[in-house]
Amino acid sequence: MEIFHKRTWAEIDLDAAERNLNILKGFIDKEKTRPCCVLKAFGYGHGDTVLMKLYQSLGVDFFAVSNIDEAIGLRKNGCTGDILILGYTDDAYAAELAEYDIIQAAVSAEYARELSAAAEKPVRVHIKLDTGMGRIGLIAKDREKCLEEIAQIKKLPKLVPEGIFTHFAVADSLEEESCSYTDMQKDLFFSIAEEAGGFKEVHCLNSAGAELHYDSRSTLARFGILLYGLNPDTSLEMPKGIEPVMEVKTVIGYIKELHKGDCVSYGRTFTAQRDMRAATLPIGYADGYPRLLSNRGEVIICGKRAKILGRVCMDQMIVDITDIPEAKIGTEVTVFGRGEITADDIAALCGSIGYEIICAVSPRVPRVYLKNGKIVDVVNIL
Ligand SMILES: *Cc1c(COP(=O)(O)O)cnc(C)c1O
């Protein structure tokens, strides 16, 4: 096992990840739909290899990633299941797709033709339909053209079209208009998939889709954010039992008294109005902590909230520990995670979503994996 030096680190609770997966399995009919664990973006910042191994040990045999590097990484690290690249891959890499037995999204008829032309060995593909997300895929609204393009892709000599899929734009909303939009996307998708026919995998569900708009015609549920224990949309209630998997921690590195009039950090945006006690933490925006939370964010020290004073720097930030007398040099600090301050809370303060906060935890933060509260693995990316 790699070592890690206590400075700033991310604890990944593998028991929580397993519990989340089990709850998500409860959303789907296991006779009709299998879980596909989405491990793009380094497993939403949690580390894709260790999670892949966990899910694989729990029977998951389908994974999705965003690009060929992520896909090859999983394969080289022992992934025996199917790996689907959801987005762009240059057709020049057809040989690698075949070599590593990776499934590529066929995002347009033109791309499919080029991929087939570039391939020597057969490349497995899932045809992507754009049913209303407006990002990538064959335009499904143009029904006849879409069916014609699917037929053309099926005839390409070097492609193996095993699946067809689409992605929802507003599955995380229960507004009436959003629900009917999702229904429209689903109807369009399944009617085209059924008319085209012959696909082993036909899938449309993301986390929120599986939770709120489950459809047993989807052979896979592409679980992402809820696996990691964050909410697809914070205006929704979190499904019962789902819990964050990642906790970012740091330690107190330095303590000082501030006197009335003393200022703190770049730009002198905080000035003490009274005597205070302040702690400097070795974490900053280079670790992925948002600088937007200067003078706004809070961390947890000894079970209490400590406010950020002044600007978040690249590698350090300063917090108010006036009311936490037990805080000492070396005391552990929870920056966000599984308790009172979650990544969703941080995101709300930044006007963003939890997805962005966990993906932003930077490569210099070691990932420390826990089982039964004990460290079972460490990944140092840098
Ligand atoms: C990211 C992604 C998912 C997973 O979405 P979550 O909201 O995280 O569950 C599923 N499908 C596609 C195409 C995606 O890009």
Structure, explained:
This protein is α/β, with parallel strands linked by helices. The chain folds into two domains: 32-228, Alpha-Beta Barrel (TIM Barrel), CATH 3.20.20.10; 246-379, Lyase, Ornithine Decarboxylase, Chain A, domain 1, CATH 2.40.37. The protein contains eleven helices and 21 strands. The strands form three sheets. It has a ten-stranded mixed β-sheet. Helix 4 (68-76) links the parallel strand 3 and strand 4 (82-85). The longest helix has 21 residues, at 176-196. The protein is elongated. The protein binds pyridoxal-5'-phosphate (PLP).
Brief write-up:
The protein has 382 residues and is of the alpha/beta class. The chain has helices at 14-25, 40-44, 48-57, 68-76, 94-99, 109-118, 143-155, 176-196, 207-212, 343-350, 354-359; strands at residues 8-13, 34-38, 62-65, 82-85, 103-106, 123-130, 138-139, 159-166, 201-203, 220-223, 246-251, 254-258, 263-264, 270-271, 276-281, 298-301, 304-309, 317-320, 332-336, 367-371, 374-379.
